Amino acid sequence: MAVGTLDTFPKLLMHHAHARGARPAIREKDLGIWQTWTWKRFADEVRALACGLAAEGFKRGEHLAIVGDNRPRIYAAVCAAQCLGGIPVPLYQDAQASEVVFPIQNAEIRFAIVEDQEQVDKLLEILPQCPTLRRIFYDDSRGLRHYTQPQLSSYEKLLQKVDGAFIDAEIDKGSGSDTAAMFFTSGTTGVPKGVVLTHHALIDRARAVAEMEKLTDRDVVLAFMPPAWIGQNIFSYAQPLVAGYCICCPESAETVVTDMREIAPSYYFAPPRVFEALLTQVSVRMEDAGAFKRWLYRTFMGVAKRVGTRILEGKEVPLLDRVLYNLGDLSVYGPLRNVLGMSKVRIAYTGGEAIGPDLFTFYRSLGINLKQLYGSTETSVFVCVQPDGQVKSDTVGPAVPGVELKFTPARELLIRSPGLFKEYYKNPQATAEAKDAEGWFHTGDAGYIDPDGHVKIIDRAKDVGQLADGTLFAPKYLENKLKFFPYIKEAVAFGDRRERVCVFLNIDMDAVSNWAEKRNLAYSGYTDLAQQDAVYQLVGECVEQVNADLARDSELANSQVHRFLILHKELDADDEELTRTRKVRRRFIGEKYGSLVEALYNNQQAVHVEAKVRYEDGRTGMFSADLKIRDAKTFAPAAAKHAA
Amino acid sequence: MILSVENVSLSFGGVRALQDVSFDVKEHEVRAIIGPNGAGKSSMLNVLNGVYHPQKGKIRFRDKEFTDMDSHEAAALGIARTFQNIALFKGMTVLDNIMTGRNLKMRCNFLQQAVWFGPAKREEMAHRRAAEEIIDFLEIQHVRKTPVGRLPYGLQKRVELGRALAAEPTLLLLDEPMAGMNLEEKQDMCRFVLDVNDHYGTTIVLIEHDMGVVMDISDRVVVLDYGRKIADGVPEEIKNNKAVIDAYLGVAH
Question: What is the ipTM of this complex?
Answer without folding.
Answer: 0.82
